[in-house]
Amino acid sequence: MATSETNSSPARAAGAQTLARGLRALELIAQTPGGMTIQDVAVELGVHRSIATRLLSTVAEFRLINRGPDGRYRAAGGLAALAREVYAGLRDQATPPMRQLANTLGASVALFVAEAEDAVAVAVVEPADAPLRVAFRQGGRHPLDRGAAGYALLAAQPERPGENPRVTEARQRGYVISFGEVAPGFWGLGVPLTRPVNEQAACLTLISASRELVESAPDSLLKVATELSSYAI
To answer: Which of 94, 125, 128, 195 has the most other CB atoms within 10 Å of its CB?
Structure first.
């Protein structure tokens, strides 16, 4: 029995590597609006084109990606169907007041959650008549240790030893403002939400090129954050 387990270890390791590559390929394609060619994926993964071809064909079988007439792979309907169920309750409750905020203030509003050491946008609402739009989208992510969203998410969690003073500020004031840390030239206003125990930390973030707008908006975001925090979402 020990010999059999030893012999199977390389196979398990190879299987884990293949899975990791397939998931990474899916992530890369989902984050590239224009799609990626087989060669693009091969270069990013550091593998031979033949390996990339097999990986993409397998992922495509599950309708998570699709190869277009131009030969480029893009995210497909299967991935969207899975994504709709992720944080669905939180998004459903948050989206209407986020849309009202975005239209009233004339700035983009995003709902972020903390996943491991990343801040992930699970909903992004832009004002209806905005002359300038932020190049940010649902599913976008950045490290927790930067930007208004990152600081607000960390503030929604228990205090960490040696935490950034910006996080302490967000916890004490109920909000935090940053500039150019995630999107160059843009200001961010992050407000942590109060979430049920064992649920991912979440926050609302206002994103604008106007410092004056962001500095005038904390009360508006705090009001919506308080309302959302009262829901069992």
So the answer is: 94
Q: CB of 35 within 8 A of CB of 73?
A: yes
Q: What are phi and psi of 74, to 5 degrees?
A: -135, 160
Domains in the chain, CATH or no CATH each? 2-82 (1.10.10.10), 86-229 (3.30.450.40)
Q: Which residue has the tokens 């593998």?
A: 47
pTM above 0.85, yes or no: no
